[in-house]
UniProtKB/TrEMBL annotation:
Keywords: FAD, Flavoprotein. This is FAD-dependent oxidoreductase. It comes from Stigmatella ashevillensis. The keyword Flavoprotein applies. PANTHER family: BINDING MONOOXYGENASE, PUTATIVE (JCVI)-RELATED (PTHR43004:SF19), TRK SYSTEM POTASSIUM UPTAKE PROTEIN (PTHR43004).
Length: 506
């Protein structure tokens, strides 16, 4: 019987990232997908700053950036006139080593992840489908249908459901998937265009009866168009072509569409499961939450699910942590998913609402407010933090403890680069570690050495104070780079107590 530590069902970005992070930590995985091969359409495009920060752990960030297109600015157009220009790059400067939104088509993204996984000796098993599984308390037994139609039984310590919105695993564990479906019908088209100025920025066009977003992602004017399908055309959405959809907003941008490479219509759903874990089975990505495309958050959220769970599964498989550590996956990711769905729902509703009042706000009020707001540093910074997911924290998690300066347990570690010294450099290693900004106490150094825990000390300077650090405090970082414990005293006793509760292997 085939046996492995973790069986991953679904080889989209979420499943592939989970397989990569687990394999890097010495965990054996098997990843299956019922499709014949990787996706061939662009689908999700945005790769956010927080995802790139985490991609440094597997030396993926540079390769993804080199293959993608940086979008540093967003332009808002109303009835053919540009009303606001928001520079994302300026807003994110000093907050992240990646102060931009990267546009990188999902099909190319998946290919890169598959290739990287193959270099680690793991191959995605295609045309292989999970038929059923049983949680026996100490292991998972799964029935698989193989490409030749025969069935195979395999065992794993844990099962990861990365199998999309119609998840077999979610149905099997009886998890709810509450939410709804927006009434509007939308279209997405991958096109080759000209006439857009500037050609390499994000453009949002709002008109009385039309909406379109334009995102450039390649050479020769390759762009993604996202728009609404209105009036009676929505009733025959399945048979529409690009020529059938509203063209007013497109024309008002001065856009000429020369080639349509892919076109599809869809309805947008917003749903969150009530359980991310049931025994030894876990839900990740679209299997656990789906929401509107506002802000390009979907794929990035699934990737964050995978990285959050990966280090916890690794600790559990190795016997280094209690089962309660795995419970923290649901505690952290369920709360974030609910907040994300609520936030994207409000933005999406504003942009797409069909009423005279909503039309008035979009075309009259927004053009007055946004140009002013876009020049205000705090507003632009807030927008970058939200879109980039660098504002995500786990303050309410059972794993998060302490406050030192303005940094709380559960925070993403503030990024600081001083004279070429980048405090994110040590985060490339998937491990627990301690950071001190100032001077580390002698007993802390001794304790870290005894526990084989990396200690990184940064000479105090105003940049660290500005970022919110407390001088000489000790910050214990989780393997996914979030602050587990902020200890103002810098003494090892607090760290000792924390690790005794959560990690036995240090």
């Amino acid at each position: 019987m085939n046996k492995q530590d973790v069986l991953i069902v679904g080889a989209g970005p979420t499943g592939l990232v989970l397989a990569l992070w687990l394999t890097q930590q010495g965990i054996t995985v098997r990843i299956i997908d019922k499709s014949t091969g990787p996706g061939t359409t662009s689908r999700a495009l945005a790769v956010q700053a927080r995802t790139l920060e985490l991609y440094r752990q597997l030396d993926l960030a540079d390769a993804v950036i080199a293959a993608g297109n940086r979008n540093l600015s967003i332009n808002l157009w109303i009835k053919g006139k540009r009303k606001a220009h928001i520079s994302v790059g300026e807003a994110g400067a000093g907050l992240s080593p990646y102060p931009f939104v990267l546009i990188y088509p999902q099909d190319l993204h998946e290919q890169l992840l598959v290739e990287r996984l193959e270099t680690l000796g793991i191959r995605v098993e295609r045309q292989t489908e999970l038929i059923d599984f049983e949680d026996k308390g100490d292991k998972i037994t799964a029935r698989l249908q193989m490409p030749n139609g025969e069935e195979e039984t395999c065992e794993a310590q844990y099962l990861a459901g990365c199998d999309g919105a119609r998840s077999t695993i979610r149905h099997k564990i009886g998890a709810a998937f509450e939410g709804g479906t927006y009434s509007q019908v939308f279209y997405v088209a991958d096109v080759e265009v000209s006439g857009l100025t500037p050609p390499d920025e994000v453009h949002l066009a709002l008109d009385h009866s039309d909406f379109v977003a334009v995102l450039s992602y390649g050479k020769n004017g390759q762009s993604r168009l996202i728009g609404t399908v209105r009036d009676e055309r929505a009733e025959r959405a399945e048979t529409l072509t690009f020529d059938d959809v509203g063209q007013q907003a497109i024309r008002n941008l001065g856009l000429q569409v020369h080639q349509v490479n892919w076109f599809s219509t869809y309805r947008v759903h917003h749903r969150v499961t009530d359980r991310f874990r049931s025994g030894r089975a876990f839900l990740l990505g679209d299997a656990a939450h789906i929401h509107s495309p506002a802000g390009g958050q979907g794929m990035n959220t699934g990737i964050s699910d995978a990285i959050n769970l990966a280090w916890k599964l690794a600790a559990a498989v190795k016997g280094e942590a209690p089962d309660s550590l795995l419970d923290s996956y649901q505690a952290e990711r369920l709360l974030f998913a609910r907040k994300l769905v609520d936030t994207t729902d409000r933005v999406f509703t504003f942009v797409t609402a069909e009423s005279s009042f909503a039309d008035f706000v979009r075309t009259r009020i927004a053009p007055l407010f946004l140009p002013v707001a876009s020049t205000m540093g705090p507003v632009r910074e807030f927008m970058f933090r939200v879109i980039s997911q660098t504002t995500l924290s786990y303050h309410e998690s059972p794993l998060s403890q302490g406050v030192a300066g303005k940094v709380h347990g559960g925070d993403r570690l503030p990024w600081v680069s001083v004279d070429g010294t980048d405090n994110y450099e040590p985060l490339k290693t998937i491990t627990w570690q301690v950071h001190v900004y100032g001077s580390a106490r002698a007993e802390l150094k001794t304790w870290c050495e005894a526990h084989h825990l990396p200690l990184h000390v940064y000479a105090w300077g105003p940049e660290y104070e500005k970022a919110g650090f407390a001088r000489d405090a000790a910050y214990l970082l989780r393997p996914d780079t979030y602050v587990a414990l902020a200890a103002p005293s810098g003494a090892p006793a607090d760290l000792e107590t924390y690790l005794k509760d959560w990690i036995h292997g240090l």
